[in-house]
Amino acid sequence: MAQDIVEEYNHQSTFTYSSKIEDEIRNGAVEKPKGYRVSWHHNPDVERYHFGQLHPMKVWRLTLTKSLIMGYQMHNAMDLYSSRPAYKEEIARFHKEDYVEFLSVATPKNLIEMYPELAQSTGFSSSVYGVGDDCPIFDGLFEYCSFYAGASIDAASKLVNQQSDIALNWTGGLHHAKKGEASGFCYVNDIVLAIIELLAYHPRVLYIDIDVHHGDGVESAFWSTDRVFCVSFHKYDKEVFFPGTGPLDSTGPHHPDNPGRNHTINVPLNDGITDADYAYLFDTVIGAVTRNYDPSAIVLQCGADSLGHDRLGCFNLNIKGHGHCVQYCTDYCTKFKKPLLVLGGGGYTPRNVARAWAHETSITIGAANKIDPDLPEDMPYREHFRREGMTLFPNLGGWKGQNLNTRADIDKIVRSVHEQMRYIRGAPSVQMNYIPKEVNQWREEAEKEHQARRMEREERMEERDGAGGLLALKSRRRELEKNGLFAGNMGNMKTSEFMTGPISG
Ligand SMILES: [Zn+2]
């Protein structure tokens, strides 16, 4: 009799246990990483904007990325932050005030009134702050810029405050924007703003750019300092490939007294580079720089237009080949306890951008080997991945046929980098920037305003959702108790906020 009961009990228990495992496998079973914290900075409002029907930049890729990350339940392994928009004054820490002012007032309607010369077709860019076909003025442009820039600044400040060890903002990484000019689909350079934030506390920042295009905006911003070391891997062709800069011999200013001398590395590549060649170059170059420069923080721009099959790209990289760079930086930063800021960038085949950034998120949380390569069954927009099959790792290599990077080209790059490293010895000059008090004050105000808006949104949800609203009310109360209404904290984001996106009206 007793045995029967035991057997019955075991049967029940086995059944429950195995279905729990099945459920966990289906949901990715991702847990918070051990020994370090990862934060994800995102504001769903950034997904609302459109560059125009024919423009290759599709903000939609951010929605797909989020859908994959959450479909795999990876948000459970990270601290989620709803970022607030960056203040004009913060943006002006790098950008010229007249340019910031222009961005904040220009609309498709008033643009021609302000600049009648733009009525004629301008081509890719114009003398009016770089505005043109590449960087159009669309409705809500400044809000869009403020959202992605705010997320990068918040991410950097979480790293500085040691509330996070690896911070992700897939909406950022807009590396072409210049001090007073939009360029290459980029208006506000969130990377420069984030690095400025890091420089207040970190003596040496290493910036790494794996977008298929040269990271020219960031390079020029920090050209004359030894406190930021810029390394860009990109397709280089002076004549035909945007932006036409970043040759091997461009290593910083020439003047012997300029501290920025030798603090730039450009890795110019040709069409069709493979995973193996790219990984070899990345490991060799970044290995040499980290050994010699000893950065105190790393910023990695993960432009996904370096993947095979990108609408604007020309490399043969697979999702894992691209992710290799994120793995390298994650391993380095967790081993040596240095903060890592991971940003998005270019990427013009949205479903593959989403695959890459979801995979790279899994790398940062140490879950790359735990998640199922088959895409989650119950995720929004799953159908959009059908073309390559429902896998996280479609074959994107071999697309460009031949790899035009010869062994001799690669050896030449490696020799040049090793030669340059002879000049990078010992700690560079450390002069800490003073942060003006007003900047922190603006930030506090921005955070308060953002918190107030979130509360308003939640109140609307409560009115709308009935019983669900009660839950929302409870969680909001908990949050208020935790943070204090006027503590000026960035709100730790709730899942519902990620999923539902903005409520209009
Ligand atoms: Zn690019």
UniProtKB/TrEMBL annotation:
Keyword Transmembrane applies: no
GO MF annotations, alphabetized: histone deacetylase activity, hydrolytic mechanism; metal ion binding
Keywords: Chromatin regulator, Hydrolase, Metal-binding, Nucleus, Transcription, Transcription regulation
DNA damage among keywords: no
EC number: 3.5.1.98
Binding sites annotated in the UniProt record for a divalent metal cation: D211, H213, D305
Histone deacetylase domain span: 55-362
Database matches in SUPFAM superfamilies: Arginase/deacetylase (SSF52768)
Catalytic activity, reaction form: N(6)-acetyl-L-lysyl-[histone] + H2O = L-lysyl-[histone] + acetate
GO cellular component terms attached to this protein's record: Rpd3L-Expanded complex; Set3 complex
Coiled-coil stretches: none
Binding site for substrate: D134, G184, Y348
Region of interest (Disordered), ranges: 445-466
GO terms of biological process kind: epigenetic regulation of gene expression
Compartment(s): Nucleus
Membrane-spanning parts: none
Superkingdom of source: Eukaryota
Annotated catalytic residues: H176
InterPro entries xrefs: HDAC_I/II, HDACs, His_deacetylse_dom, His_deacetylse_dom_sf, Ureohydrolase_dom_sf
Family designation: Belongs to the histone deacetylase family. HD Type 1 subfamily.
Protein name: Histone deacetylase
Organism, scientific name: Lithohypha guttulata
Gene: HOS2
